[in-house]
Amino acid sequence: MTFSLTILGSGSAIPTLTRNPSAQLLNVHEKIFLIDCAEGTQLQLRKFKFRLQKIDHIFISHLHGDHFFGLIGLISTLHLLGRKNEMHVYAPAELEEIIDIQFKASGTILRFPLIFHYLHQRTSEIIYEDKNVKVRSFPLNHSIPTWGFVFREKQKERNIRKDFIIEKNIPVTEILKIKKGEDYVDENGKIYKNPEITLNPQEPRSYAYCSDTRYFEPVIPFIKDVDVLFHEATFMQDKVKNAIENFHSTAIEAATIAKKAGVNKLIIGHYSARYKNAELLLSEAKSIFPNTILAEDGLKVDIDMDINRN
Amino acid sequence: MTFSLTILGSGSAIPTLTRNPSAQLLNVHEKIFLIDCAEGTQLQLRKFKFRLQKIDHIFISHLHGDHFFGLIGLISTLHLLGRKNEMHVYAPAELEEIIDIQFKASGTILRFPLIFHYLHQRTSEIIYEDKNVKVRSFPLNHSIPTWGFVFREKQKERNIRKDFIIEKNIPVTEILKIKKGEDYVDENGKIYKNPEITLNPQEPRSYAYCSDTRYFEPVIPFIKDVDVLFHEATFMQDKVKNAIENFHSTAIEAATIAKKAGVNKLIIGHYSARYKNAELLLSEAKSIFPNTILAEDGLKVDIDMDINRN
Predict the structure, then answer these.
(1) What's the longest Cα–Cα distance across chain A?
(2) Span B174-201, pLDDT tens digits
(3) pLDDT above 60 (res A309)
(4) CB-CB contact of A35 with A128 (8 Å)
(5) A171, A199, A227 — which closes off a domain?
């Protein structure tokens, strides 16, 4: 089952012709989650050939424009294209009013339910859950209330060996018990231990998003051991004062968080527009955390235990 | 002196990879006027190599998203780039609150004065004037209050023949009078009639913008005889019912307005996304008004009497 991330915008506050500001798409078993939605995100979705109507859940980390100015346009387009399905937005409460007054001014009455779920200051909570994934919010350290999000796939049931099911003609009720870890007892009273007749399921996969934030160790427990961490890296280390003043991080700081949290892979992004060559940021990050890659608009990362944990 | 129009977005409500929604740039003697500002306009400005900070006046025709969703992002970028100069926005009053609550949510205090000039319902008025140009708003017929804008260059003074100034060594005070149309009397009392010693100045140029609107003849007096008219043409004639229902125009209707107003050149645009090939709209419009061209993103039109009035 799919668990993949696509970077729709890798830049910071000012859009450029090569880097859109923040937006990402996470595909968890074909359920599509949009994370942040800068101006131009709907066009990035088209450019990278995603179907807009497949998005049902949008997570907005905070209310700086480079993380949400594209939301009103995306919602407007979904409406014009005839959307009927619910759309859920997880965001600071003020965003609902911002969206509402714009639709009021344009005389628009949405044809689909737009449901806001407010993020609460200074708390971490499970904000979304379905049979495959849980999403937790957690506070970051930025100039306005800002949240990170961690997506953790749920533990799968054990896989029964198919040859065993056929050989013993096992009834469905027993199959369900075996998948949950029980042993099997046949009609002669013979016991088959669970580990002999099942295979380990794929380990749950996980993705964490931290943008925008100062270097902030309190995030570590929330993002502990994730397969892939996106962490903003607005500045290089010689600009650490700018990072502190502007509530952002350096590439070294992002890498330090990745290392301390024991994550598998780090993606850095949200680069200041001053850096024409993000390779310089990458080499600083790699000096601390070698398994780091650069976010680029359109980059797709398949988050798969087998690939990422070796 | 320059009088030129650049189409930044030629599409209608839904942005596509080939047509951004409405935005245009008018250069009048190197003063830059932005007309409408859809999502993505700041990137269109970069793409077509305009300097963002040269814009001091922005005209917003109405509060449908495809005409203003890009304003907040543009203003935000100008702020981040260190703008100090005043920015004037001519728009329906509700836009000020829409901009204000977004900057309040992001904790942004603009470093430059952002001055709103409200458009008033159902009236036409001079909304801007400088030594070179007057801008008049006028009501259109759309589902929400919507205005057109007409930019008319002021009448220039007469040009004195340089050979005459040199030959007669004419003092500056006299030159100013002659430019205004007076005759010249030399020290011997000899009268030189003004038309003999001056040349006609270039005729004032003009541009009118009509988007979005139903077919609406009351606009004709305001746009009478302009050099270039932009008129929306959302639909082809077989969809005239859709045009009426949605308060838009067909290409034929746009051309009929152009003909009745005696304009020189018509640009049609704001095409429904259903038309992959705008040539069909063009051929309908040309059947009524031959001097019609299609708006395309990036199209530049130099509005010059000598070129356009032949």
Answers:
(1) 75
(2) 888 998 889 998 888 899 999 988 998 8
(3) no
(4) no
(5) A199
How many Cβ atoms from other residues are within 10 Å of residue A38's Cβ? 25
Question: What ipTM did this prediction achieve?
Answer: 0.90
In a shared domain, residues B71 and B183: no
> What span, in angstroms and rounded, lies between the C-alpha atoms of A64 and A147?
12
Residue A15 to residue B42, Cβ atoms within 8 A: yes
On chain B, the residues whose CB falls within 8 A of the CB of A42 are 15, 39
Residues A207 and A103 reside in one and the same domain: yes
Q: Helix B71-80 vs helix B94-105: angle between axes, to the nearest 10 degrees?
A: 50
d(CA A61, CA A89): 11
Structural tokens at position A299: 């980059």
A241 lies in the same domain as A115: yes
**pLDDT of B63 strictly over 90:** yes
Q: How many domains does chain B have?
A: 2
Q: Could you tell me the two tokens for B296?
A: 């395309």
Closest approach of A154 to chain B, Cα-based (Å): 35
Is the predicted pLDDT of residue A28 greater than 50, yes or no?
Answer: yes
Q: Which of residues B146, B176, B199 is at a domain's end?
A: B199
Tell me if residue B304 is catalytic: no
Q: Return the closest-CA partner of residue A256 out of A284, A227, A277.
A: A284
Q: What percent of chain B has pLDDT over 90?
A: 81
Alpha-carbon distances, residue B70 vs A170, B60, B219 (angstroms) = 62, 11, 27
User: Do residues A163 and A130 share a domain?
Assistant: no
Give the pair of three-digit tokens for residue A234.
């607005």
pLDDT digits (tens, 9 = 90+) for A189-238: 899 999 988 998 888 999 999 999 999 999 999 999 999 999 999 999 99
In the block, residue with structure tokens 């880097």 = A19
B292-294 and A228-232 beta bridge pairing: unpaired
> pLDDT-derived band of residue A308, with 50, 70 and 90 as boundaries?
very low
A77 and A173 inside one domain: no
Residues B195 and B232 in one domain: no
Q: What is the mean pLDDT of chain B?
A: 94
CA distance B102 to A92: 12
Read off the pLDDT band of B309 (50, 70, 90). very low
Does residue B226 sit in the same domain as residue B195?
no
DSSP result, A76-137: HHHHHTT--S-EEEEE-THHHHHHHHHHHHTT---SS-EEEEE--TT--EEEEE-SSEEEEE
Catalytic residue selected from B36, B56, B66, B100: B66
Chain A nearest-CA distance from B301, in A, is 24
Helix then strand then coil, in percent of chain A rounded to 5, is 30, 30, 40
Instruction: Round to whole Å and give the CA distance between A131 and B17.
Output: 36
d(CA B288, nearest CA chain A) in Å: 31
* Beta-carbon separation of A65 and B76 below 8 A: yes
Q: Which of B21, B17, B11 is nearest to B68 (CA)?
A: B21
The verdict on a CB contact (< 8 Å) between B39 and A70 is yes
Domain hosting B174: range is 159-199
Give this prediction's pTM: 0.91
**Are B56 and B189 found together in one domain?**
no
pLDDT in tens, B116-159: 999 987 889 999 999 999 999 999 999 999 999 999 999 888 88
The H or E element that residue A164 is part of is helix A162-168
- Closest alpha carbon within chain A to B62: A106
